[in-house]
Amino acid sequence: MRIGELARRSGVSERSLRYYESQGLLLSERSPGGHREFGEWAVDRVVRIQALYAAGLHSKRIARLLPCMRDVDGGPNEFATARLVDELTEERDRIDRMIADLARSREVLDEAIAAASAGPAREAEPSSPRARA
């Protein structure tokens, strides 16, 4: 499939796909006319890349991890190492800390909302600066 179809099927812009390729995260072959051609596997690869970016990993770390992830058949990849497991565990622990921090922030906001909602009747606030004049 060409880059436009991969972009449509994965929900990722063509520009991002070209960046992934430049970073070694995604590989393509070239057609005789010079167009990028991707196999069906590329959709799953892009989804994985997006998930790793969303987890806060940077492209260099993703490039190191992708070859070590499970093969298409679901079995462990021969490139997986104990060091990789340690790195992934560190990343998961970092994400767990971020989740805990966000949960605490949400609790503080919930308390503030509850306190503001239970307080004395609020004065009607003007909807525009002109209304205040």
Automatic annotation (TrEMBL):
Recorded superkingdom: Bacteria
Location of the HTH merR-type domain: 1-68
PROSITE patterns in alphabetical order: HTH_MERR_1 (PS00552), HTH_MERR_2 (PS50937)
A Pfam short name: MerR_1
CDD domains: HTH_MerR-like_sg3
InterPro entries from the UniProt entry: DNA-bd_dom_put_sf, MerR-type_HTH_dom, MerR_fam
GO molecular function, a single term: DNA-binding transcription factor activity
Keywords assigned by UniProt, alphabetized: DNA-binding
SUPFAM superfamilies in the cross-refs: Putative DNA-binding domain
The protein, known as: MerR family transcriptional regulator
Organism from which the protein derives: Streptomyces misionensis
